[in-house]
Amino acid sequence: MIEVQDLIVSRGGDPKKVIESLQKRYAPTEIVDEVIALWNDAYQSQSGHLSQLTTSTYSSSFARKMIYDTDTNSNGIAARYKATQFGAKINAVQKEIGKLKKAKQDADHLLKEKAELEKQKKATEDEATEKEKLRDKKCKLIGNYVHESVPVNDNEDFNEVIKRWAPEGVKVEKRDCLSHHEVMTRADVYDGERGVKLVGHRGYFLRKWGVLLNQALINYGLHFLVGRGYDPIQPPYFMKAEYMAKTAQLEQFDEELYKVVEGADAEDKYLIATSEQPLSAMFADEWLTEKDLPMKFAGYSSCFRKEAGSHGRDAWGLFRIHQFEKIEQFLFVKPEESWQALEDMRETAEAFYQSLGLPYRVVVIVSGALNNAAAKKYDLEAWFPYQGEYKELVSCSNCTDYQTRELEIRYGQKKGAIDARKSYVHALNGTLCATERTLCCLLENYQKEDGFEVPEALRPYMPPGTPDIIPYTKELPKESTSVKAKQQPKPKADGGAPEGGPKLNMPAAENVADKMKDMKV
């Protein structure tokens, strides 16, 4: 969440900046009025007419000044201020009680008065606490500040393409070839029918060479990041609701997260949708110092997503599924270093996909499509030649201090130190490899007439004796996707890889096989 005081002029805030960022997100700006009003109600005394100022009058400079700069000599008294006044009265009454008792006089009437004042104080404190909770809840709906370099639009068709890459000699064009799930069917590495029988929609069994290829991607991805100074880490697969709520957006609970219910007395937990979630909360309520940073994690986990908002999208194969494995880049860095860290993270992802020989492009996501935590996001989209389109394999985001503020991951001198300043580390996350999805792309790009060519970078991670080309062992069913497509008028070609897939003549990236021999994980 953003800092609440960023909305309060008297606390050094600039609400205009917040409004401008919300407008870039194509998000309602009325929430700014509401948070400010709740701040005033909880912490400041207000004139009776002040409460009449609404969003409709907020646009005037006078109304804004009244809301922002109201001081404590007004007629009405806010809850937190009232509680302070009750405290002063209680102290005064307590002194009188002490005097009477010292004089051995009856103080029952003052004891009753004190009890009543304490009751009223608690009521006003509870009222203030509830208003503060509501204020913070609304503040969480305000997204992070959009970086100035982000293209302003609410249509992802206008994502800015900043780079394209393909192996030398490879044309990016649509091909008359098999889809990735057909390659899996012919190579007998996937059983979707029985997976759906047991699990339901998007269920699957990965089998034989499919398991080994997926595991090769996992191991290669981990060692690729280890070679760049990342620490491998495997987080827990579920989280308490308290911490999940501090790192996931509200809509994710409905559309993405699976809830684990143990019983009436047990605390509910949520299965993780990405290792970003537990990694971001790993240091909650802790202070990190300059010597601790940067922290670079290569997170490895299974991930679980309901995909409730993706009905009908990528319904076949392994591209969009409920359970998958992912290698994640996750960084904690000094605030002044986070933007360079985002560029480094993107370049790491690019180097990985170049080593796999997959054509791709990099796009900057438009402001209206950013999730609340991200100030800027890059997507790396790889080419799928059967479909004739680029599809997302990687997202890299700088979340600045949006997550760490709510999780209270502080940066600077520890509590009690001289000149301690309230500052938060910056957190960044980026996919390196969602392995099943990446496997889909590899299958389409590396298919041959008689099988699937194992990319050179993955061969050191396959069992001894693995053939360079994994042969097809099954025929396609008559109603298969590519067979049906051939019976229809072909769409105009607009891109894909040439027959046979990219031919690599390059060493495995960063001599990962050699690093693996010396690595103890």
In short:
The protein is of the alpha+beta class and 521 residues long.
Please, could you describe this protein's structure?
One of its GO terms (molecular function) is ATP binding. Residues 512-521 have a biased composition (Basic and acidic residues). L-serine binds at residues 274, 305, 328, 429. The chain is α+β, with helices and mostly antiparallel strands and 521 residues long. The protein folds into two domains: 1-143, Helix Hairpins, CATH 1.10.287; 160-518, Bira Bifunctional Protein, Domain 2 (BirA Bifunctional Protein, domain 2, 2-Layer Sandwich). Helix content is 37%, strand content 17%. The protein is built from 17 helices and 18 strands. The protein has helices at residues 15-24, 30-43, 55-58, 61-69, 79-102, 108-139, 180-187, 192-199, 209-226, 241-247, 250-255, 276-281, 338-355, 402-407, 435-445, 481-486, 512-518; strands spanning 160-165, 190-191, 205-206, 231-233, 238-240, 259-260, 269-271, 287-288, 295-304, 323-333, 360-364, 376-384, 389-398, 410-411, 423-424, 426-434, 451-453, 469-471. An eight-stranded mixed β-sheet has the order 1-11-12-13-16-10-9-4. A three-stranded antiparallel β-sheet has the order 5-7-6. The longest helix is centred in the first third of the chain and has 32 residues, at 108-139. The chain is elongated and about 105 Å long. The two termini are 36 Å apart. Mean pLDDT is 82; it is low at 45-77 and 491-521.
